[in-house]
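Researcher: We plan to redesign the surface later, but first we want a full-length starting point. Tokens attached.
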């Protein structure tokens, strides 16, 4: 999956906590919506809301992947 995609606010993406570790069940992709895009070049790139969990997280771009189906 491509990691060079830049997401915009209110866009859906898949959140993967540990992209390099594909073997464990805790690492399944979760649907998330972008709440905020950090433009300051800090540690995090996006603030997301994880659908189904109801949690808000700050994440790096490497943890997000495009949604391939609705």
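Model: Full-length starting sequence:
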């Amino acid at each position: 999956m491509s990691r060079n995609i830049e997401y915009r606010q209110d866009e859906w993406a898949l959140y993967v906590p540990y992209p390099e570790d594909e073997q464990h069940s805790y690492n399944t992709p979760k649907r998330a919506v972008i709440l905020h895009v950090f433009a300051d070049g800090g540690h995090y790139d996006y603030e997301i809301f994880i659908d189904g969990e109801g949690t808000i997280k700050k994440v790096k771009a490497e943890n997000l992947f495009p949604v391939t189906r609705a």
